[in-house]
Fold these 3 entries.
Entry 1:
Amino acid sequence: MGAEVGIRPAAGPEGNGRPPASGAHHTRSGPPLRAGGGAGGASGRLRPRLESPHSLETPGGTVERTLQYLETVEHETGASPQWCVLWLHGLGADGHDFAPIVPELVAREWPAIRFVFPHAPVRPVTINNGMRMRAWYDIAGMDFATRADSAGIVESIAQVEALIAREAERGIPAERVLLAGFSQGGAITLAAGLRRERPLAGLIGLSTYLPGAERLAGFATEASKRQPVFMAHGSGDPVIPIVHSENSARALRDAGYDVQWHRYPMAHQVCAEEIADLRTWMGQRFAAAE
């Protein structure tokens, strides 16, 4: 498989995104991040939770209470970012989990990017005996057709939409936002992106699947089909078997989406080859916008 970066071992039904205590596979750590290839210093800071100025409606329902912006970890690869990558972590992890991917992913010629890594809310997860952890939605069981908590998904979509709206207020419009996610975060990425009336620059779903893929026609917007999709999965994933990713990609293609799908000889994790393929795909998005 080659060098592995940011290994995401399984823990429970969708993995916690954290490194094992010992062994050869680990998540990168070390000094403050710098953008790979000399793209400029990646500034890292914690943005506190703030109240959203208005409640948000989603195609799946209305979140009645006033939302608060999720707390986020941010890294900027240069001054005055022109693009945003909003990246959602997996079950039980947090916004710091994928921050080390920035120097591995960024290319020298890219425009300045703001990477935003939000922390999911802490909630009880049924399949993990009700243990409280960071999760984008509850998981009731192992049946992929019924396991997802639809109310939790609707709420997380609204929270993601609030962050996208905040980026617009900070000068980065939706068409320059890439929405990405790993595992459970990838499920929210796809669920949110396909419901949008104003397309994003693209969707990135790693080691994930689309909840309700069999009902895609009932919630996907026509405008969302203008968003290219990058999906990648490990052939030996014991947490989300690869067939669920394959079925999701097939459903998207059949519905008219431009999907680039990759498989790698790995488990529930991220590898160097995957990052290289994602770098190429992201570079195409930046070039297309020029």
Entry 2:
Amino acid sequence: MKNTSAVMDSSDIQRTSIAVIGGGLVGSLNACFLAKRNFQVDVYESREDIRMAEFARGRSINLALSYRGRQALKAIGLEDQIVSQGIPMRARMIHSLSGKKSAIPYGTKSQYILSISRENLNKDLLTAVEKYPNAKVHFGHQLLKCRPETGVITLLGLHPRQMNVPWLGVESELRLPVYTTATRDLSRVFDLHHSSQQHRILNPLSKARDQTQVLMDTSQFILFFRPDKVPKDIACDLILGCDGAYSTVRTHLVKKPRFDYSQQYIPHGYMELTIPPQNGDFAMEPNYLHIWPRDTFMMIALPNMNKSFTCTLFMPFEEFEKLLTSRDVLDFFQKYFPDSLHLIGKEALAQDFFRLPAQPMISVKCSSFHFNSHCVLMGDAAHALVPFFGQGMNAGFEDCLVFDELMDKFNNDFSMCLPEFSKFRIPDDHAISDLSMYNYIEMRSHVNSRWFIFQKNIERCLHTLMPSTFIPLYTMVTFSRIRYHEAMLRWQWQKKVINTALFFFGTLVALSTTYLLTGPTFRSSLGCLRRSWNLVTYFQNIGRISL
């Protein structure tokens, strides 16, 4: 960990200011790295403070923390704290349709990944940011406009209030808005006329500017309050776009010349379910990533600290759409995941399956991660990944670490650091995007193949014999900092070597077996032919003599 001071010198009047857009995992980690360098760091997050929220909103897919992410956390002194909150997973546990279970190790006995709660990790990182006197997190601030050529951002401030709502019969806290639907129980959208005298319900979806939009969650009796505020412009030396796969910062960069961008929604969605503890303990073996591979779809389960498992069902949207009733769902699970049905519980499954619709997954690629010396993208804003290699967070955290290393190399010179960051990271992030797509096929289908298991065993054997020459792909990606694109090239070369060797070995075995099985017969047949030919020759000679 670097010794850059995080303490703000009171004599410093002018300090380089950095605006981090997005207070998620990558944004808050980046803020820690930059605050350590004594920059003035302001994090702008559109949501409320998740540490104060009564329930979590947004994505909750468990995270798999591996070496790259741990190295980034280590650099800011948080590795031990975060690791202590995770559960080691040393292998995949494959659940066959018959109920048979088999383990496929990730690496050596000492190698494992960690199942981590996204929500708790985000909370810890936000708390870490606020420990720096030169860093501040501004919750409820939505980015409206970004001018990367000048380093100016336009923000809309959002502020929570508390109100007494007599018609609900409870005193409800009015919170910040949720910009994506978080619950299917969200039944109506009202406008609430706000004055110091009274609060009364007006027409649904009214858009009058003097009214306040409220979202009502009927199951929680929580209202989300958004007052209208005048947008404000803020100038900074660097804009750091860490605002996720649907990045507003990136939207403005796309409008710039020679900035190419592509996105791909895969045809599969995901849905989360829960396996609760049984008798106060884990219902399954806790130190595994459990997988139910079913060729075109799959379910996985990761352990939680409260001894539950978070299950995620990945499946084509058209398959989700076929499951219309509780009976459809129960029959589907009985057919494809029979051993999980009693673990989840029939009643809980029938209820939870329809709580939220299946969510989409998107992959994003950009031709550049920066614009001039005033703006740079990191994390999902630069390279959103599908979750099948467990590298989305780890790749985002490595972005932060690489940027920090480049800042050392170029002495905090943004004009040198930003172009080099794009040049360095783009091939790596494109590679892990492609590998993540491939790994979905491996997880849902290949792991059922005996040939796949055989190849994995060969890879492990070769790695044991030649640890620096043959390294399995998963080991390179998950347990090292070998650059992603180098890992992919090396993996492709290793596959060719192994397949070629197996081909020649198989050919040799086939020829040897054929010879052993048919050799005596072949020699006997050849002897018969020779004797027959000799007999023909003999009679021919007799004929000549008699003539």
Entry 3:
Amino acid sequence: MQKNKHSIFPIFIFLITIFISSCSNYNDGYKTENQKASYKKIAEEKYSDNINYMFSPDSAFVVSYKTEEQTTDNSTPQSKFFIYDLNNNKVVFEDNSRSDKIEWINNIQLRVLKRPGIITVDPKKNLKLLGYIYDLKKNKKLPLTGTKNNNSF
């Protein structure tokens, strides 16, 4: 009888390990669904409908944005957007502008290209009018540099 007790113990441990592992996987899926629900819920509260989502290359952040419709009365529609940190479940940056293009440059930088309006003779001022790069690591706007890697003119 003693021999049977010892042979059942490893099987029992194995079954417990599988059970705990499957519970952990279930919770990971729940967290992912909650993350999705959080940024979508915030976007719906802010922008109501016609919302677009764009994930960073590593899927750690998502940009939720909406652009107004272009009409005869509104020839330069405004774009509204926010960046949501999926790992920390919070909005990390929000802006609205007359944007032509919002795009991820890499995992931590977002390029925002604007409609400049009136161009000046000062090239540095023109770059400022054309947009910026938001750096999530530095948590600030960086100027466009005019290089091909930095701008898509």
